[in-house]
Amino acid sequence: MAKTFNLMVLTPEREFYNGEAVYVSVQTIAGSIGVLAGHVPMVSALGVGELIIHPDENTSRMAFHSEGFIEVRPECVYILSQACEWPEEIDEKRALEAEQRAQERLEQERTGDDLGTMGHSKVALMRAMTRRRIKSLSSQNMK
Amino acid sequence: MPNMSDIRFHIKSVKQTRQITNAMHMVSASRMRRALDGIQKNREYFYHALDIIVDIRHHTGDISHPYLTHRPGDKVAYIVVAGEKGLSGSYNHAILSLADKVMADKNVVEVYTIGSVGTSHFLRSGITPDRHFERLAERPKLDQVRRLMTILIEQYDRGEIDELRIVFTRFINTLSREPMEQKLLPVELNDFKRGRPESPADEMYDRTHILYDPSPTAVLDALIPQLLIGYVYGAIVHAYASENCSRMAAMESATRSADKMIDKLTQQYHTVRQLTITNELADIIGAANAANAASAAETVHYPEEHKS
To answer: Which residue of A has its CA nearest to B140?
Structure first.
């Protein structure tokens, strides 16, 4: 039996996950990290990516997470993100539209000289693509 | 004295109004409960972000960061969170008069309004809001708040504004609300501490050996905009709860006055009705008496007539 730790995933809008977990992995600005029980106290900022939670040794759940941060404390691991969504909550159509919109914006910005907003379009594109990837991965697993 | 049908009509119209105010009271109550739930959830998110920033500051000493240090300029941008609709007691008036007061002596270059009452208030006083967000106060959406904050933080980065402030109504409990102003940029961490509950678990936790990945400054960079987004979202949720709470109280007292008015009118109606009946009876009795008297007089005259 692997050691478990308390995991709490919060967004400004709701409590996304609150319970025990064996392992959790997130995408930080420096790369992907995984946390097991007994991790050294740590704080890092999150990018956009996949949130993988193993509630016990045999199950694994994947979700989408947006920008935020992770705080590893001795008693609990907190993940605070602006948005978290389980695959079934992801609106694929909306993500696809957002992806196209972001791509169009990027095209325009590349030709124009307004470089300031390019970063945001890139993040928006990342968000949309990650959402779609998680959605498609989970539907494959279903089959 | 008003006549009966007038009073009846009056009672009917007051009853209709009462029905509306009562329904609005119910709606505001349920919306307030939902908003309170939102405040609770947002609070945790926000205080966590704040704790980490405070920790980083402790950890690294006084690092200078553009979001934490003051600039000499005086160009101020304001976000004003007002209601979406009227009929909410003093809510809109209180927040907008505070906004007018604090904006009066500053060099305000940008005004962003949330809620249509705020927008129309500034339009009336000759200021066109640079951007306004309708319906956001009614159903706070995080991605819209993010868009708003991205615009403002970028303006701050480019030096178009030197300060960012927000005016909103803080929800204290169902009986009290407080319109307040808060400086968002540059961030003054002590300001945000207001109303923070102290938990014993925090004191137990040794914050001196924390690993920051990849570096404290990088984490700080990423975190401050998020703290602000979290705060502004929280402010809008607070304002929404306050608006509905204020409306709930206003509608409750309106319903009560309507009840009182209906009572008064019903009493008046009864008085008038009674009076009319009395008058009618007096008329009938009077007429009957007169008729009796006339017929009595006639019977007295009959024999004489017969005689002649």
So the answer is: A13
